[in-house]
Amino acid sequence: MNAKNAWVERAHSHFSEDFGSSAEWVAVAPGRVNLIGEHTDYNEGLAVPCAVDRRTLVLGAPRGDRKVRVHAWDLDEAGEFLSDAPERRESWLDYVQGVFFALAERGFDLPGFDLGITSTVPLNSGLSSSAALGVALVAGLNAGLGLDLSPSDWARVAHRGENGFVGVQCGLLDHFASALGRERHALRIDCRSQTVEPIPIAGAGFSILLVHSGVERRLADGVYGERVAECRRALGAAQAAGIAPPSARALRDLSEAQLPRLERALDPIEFRRVRHVIGENARADAFCRALVEGDTQSLGTLLAQGQASLREDYAVSTPELDWLCELGSRCDGVVGSRLTGAGLGGFTLHLVVPDQLEAAREQIGEGFRARFGRLPESLTALPSRGAYLEDSV
Ligand code: ADP
Ligand code: MG
Asked: Which domains does the chain show, CATH number per domain?
């Protein structure tokens, strides 16, 4: 039995011990990392994430009543609610309830369920364990109840649950990546049209090294809201100056050719934010082309340019993140480096030639320790498939 199946088997045994009956389905959904296209989603731009080989399993069996009993094995916690009456508890259970809420909103009348959850996606780290949980649960309920929802719908339902019920103002990006990822592919996500295009990764591909800066990204929440507001103000100013048409809805509507006029019309901070967003959208497209062509040199250059823009124009890097990227640029076998996620903490992303992964991890870790006095946490991942149902046993 391979390691993955052993994991599923163990989860099956847990389920039977906890609930006294067998699970009818096992749904799986991965976490994700964003390769490029940062702070573009709320500007209706482009992002290029991929699903990774860290996954959440949800096992389920329907009940004869309305009770939903949920065991979160990783947290060693359990919770309960009624399938037709979810109520916010300000806990992990809300992510499960949110899915029931969002399916009810679509008109589905759901019975009770016994549910078990376990995951290899690190929680609260920016790898989108929340999307993995939501998408896996929707995929499982969809299969179990024959709801006839497509993988894009799994993403939309999970997103609606997280947004409309849990109350997290996250983009659809994470859920799309978790639901629609493909092995050896990235996804080009157009946040305006909500379309997702799989982008094949040519050649030998790369491994993903994520190194944690040790800085809690929750501290960045206030700055995130500030950037959203700055982008909105910049668009208003561009419209007032006659550069963007009144119909423009987001910074996506501005182009590189307008930068000189924007620089004259906008205040210097707002101009920098706009320059990042315009540049980042262009880099996301160029990155997709380089993936298809196996042009690793361009991939590296685009990641470095993205990092410089996040540091200089968007002001969301930190000395730790900058240093990790600098160390990456000095490593053989590292194709490119940048911070990933909203910034001001969290992980740096390094694309690495597979057989040099461990050497790069060690070299970056030691370089970080030499400056900051501690070894950073790191993890490795591969671009992987999106959500699926395990064959029933
Ligand atoms: P991220 O999505 O980056 O991991 P979030 O704060 O968006 O961070 O979501 C993490 C939250 O999602 C956890 O704190 C927990 O409430 C819930 N969650 C995710 N995965 C699980 C899991 N395997 N078991 C229980 N709750 C989970
Ligand atoms: Mg999340």
From this structure: 3-201+384-392 (3.30.230.10)
